[in-house]
Amino acid sequence: MTSSDDVPGFGWELHDDSGSSDKFYRLIVVTGPEPLALGLHGSRGQSGQIGLLRTGITAKEALNEVVKKSREKERKGYEASREFTVFHVPASIAGPNSAKDNAREIARYFGKYASQAGTELPNASYIPTV
Fold this sequence. Notes:
The chain is of the alpha+beta class. The protein has helices at about 60-75, 105-115, and strands at about 5-15, 25-30, 35-45, 50-55, 80-90.
């Protein structure tokens, strides 16, 4: 359920379990009045580290950033584990001054919506709630 205090976003997740790897890369764009591009990466089951954070850009620039990173990862063998998912996140956690501190919380919203929408594939990495 969305509210007037929510901003839209979308994202997808890639996964690499080749060889001894078992890692993910979550790619997220939050739109609204202050768009941002966000990428979290790490080992399966972990919250992940911020590998991409761009604020002060347009929604188109944010999309270009995550697509560029996605293609880079796909060339390295990463495959979809959560398909393109539209979601909503409270504006209070998605502003340019708070996005870094709230990156994992934004990813939890993405994961929740992906699960509900059926875009979470069997190889999706668990997104910790804490």
